[in-house]
């Protein structure tokens, strides 16, 4: 089948100089060192991650979309850009600079490149204001990290931010970051392989088990990255715990699985069996194509996992590859 393809989970990193980054924090704010088509995200004088020009060059990005047969790609910040641990006096102008740079990238092909804003989530009032400003400027939604220090999505302030986004019609992508596990996750990319899916699971369960979904309006559009982490596979365990332990039911009046209709996930699970389970648990109307491009852990042939899946109907594929994203982001 030939289907419209919209990728809702991809990253950018703008050409930020070391001097611009130093205004947020000289050692901890990221900037981009480039050498032709290759580059390095730097933290102060230390290399953080090798990258290539699809990440920052909008013309190369469009070439990449063409190579991948993608109609539209939604780009969001690389999480190292969040700056949640910095004072708001510096973090707000930083977020605004990142958001303005994102729009400059998208301006090369505004029909095909869409961008999500970042907000200084350590200050809820400023975060709400920046989310609204970004919406007015042309961002199609906001990406947030799944936590701010020790505060998860059930924190009263973060819940206020979610209410604001629901009221203003701002869709949200929740991305895991600042991964748990510390030194135990030091090797073999364990932060990505163990901590990231656990962070996402924690984000989703924070909203379900705290009863936040009971208070948040059904109009809230919220999507979790990486297929929702471990959520689909672990849902039986959560329901079982809710049935048998009163401390799990304490703040959550309904069976956890009854809340799957309140959020979306992307399709970045990299295995047809996992995708089958994900679609069975969430429903084809709650999964959106997401690649995590252009990083090496992203889907290299974007959309192949969905479009070549033997167990999904053409109608499912069409919803996952484009229909759901059109409705979710209004694009
Ligand atoms: Zn990502």
UniProtKB/TrEMBL annotation:
UniProt cross-references to Gene3D superfamilies, sorted A to Z: Metal-dependent hydrolases
Signal sequence region: none
Pfam family name, one: Amidohydro_2
Lyase recorded as keyword: yes
GO biological process: secondary metabolic process
Lineage: superkingdom: Bacteria
Domain annotation Amidohydrolase-related: ranges: 6-331
EC number: 4.1.1.45
Similarity comment: Belongs to the metallo-dependent hydrolases superfamily. ACMSD family.
Subunit structure: Monomer.
Name used for this protein in its record: 2-amino-3-carboxymuconate-6-semialdehyde decarboxylase
């Amino acid at each position: 089948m030939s289907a419209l393809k919209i990728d809702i989970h991809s990253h950018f990193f703008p050409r930020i100089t070391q001097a611009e980054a130093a205004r947020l924090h000289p050692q901890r704010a990221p900037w981009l060192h480039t050498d032709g088509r290759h580059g390095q995200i730097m933290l102060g004088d230390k290399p953080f991650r090798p990258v290539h020009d699809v990440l920052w060059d909008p013309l190369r990005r469009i070439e990449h979309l063409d190579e991948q047969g993608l109609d539209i790609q939604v780009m969001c910040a690389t999480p190292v850009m969040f700056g949640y641990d910095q004072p708001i006096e510096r973090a707000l102008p930083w977020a605004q600079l990142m958001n303005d740079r994102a729009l400059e990238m998208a301006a090369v092909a505004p029909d095909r490149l869409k961008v999500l804003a970042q907000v200084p989530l350590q200050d809820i009032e400023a975060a709400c204001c920046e989310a609204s400003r970004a919406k007015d400027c042309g961002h199609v939604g906001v990406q947030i990290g799944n936590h701010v220090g020790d505060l998860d999505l059930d924190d009263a302030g973060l819940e206020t931010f979610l209410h604001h986004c629901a009221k203003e019609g701002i869709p949200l992508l929740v991305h895991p970051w600042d991964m748990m596990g510390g030194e135990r996750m030091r090797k073999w990319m364990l932060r990505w392989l163990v901590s990231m899916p656990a962070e996402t699971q924690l984000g989703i369960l924070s909203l379900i088990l705290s009863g936040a979904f009971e208070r948040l309006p059904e109009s809230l559009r919220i999507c979790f990255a990486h297929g929702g982490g471990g959520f689909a596979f672990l849902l039986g365990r959560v329901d079982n715990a809710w049935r048998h332990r009163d401390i799990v039911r304490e703040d959550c009046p309904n069976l956890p699985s009854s809340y799957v209709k309140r959020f979306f996930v992307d399709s970045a699970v990299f295995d047809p069996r996992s995708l089958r389970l994900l679609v069975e648990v969430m429903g084809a109307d709650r999964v959106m194509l997401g690649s995590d491009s252009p990083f090496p852990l992203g889907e290299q042939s974007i959309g192949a996992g969905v479009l070549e899946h033997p167990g999904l109907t053409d109608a499912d594929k069409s919803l996952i590859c484009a229909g759901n994203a059109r409705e979710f982001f209004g694009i």
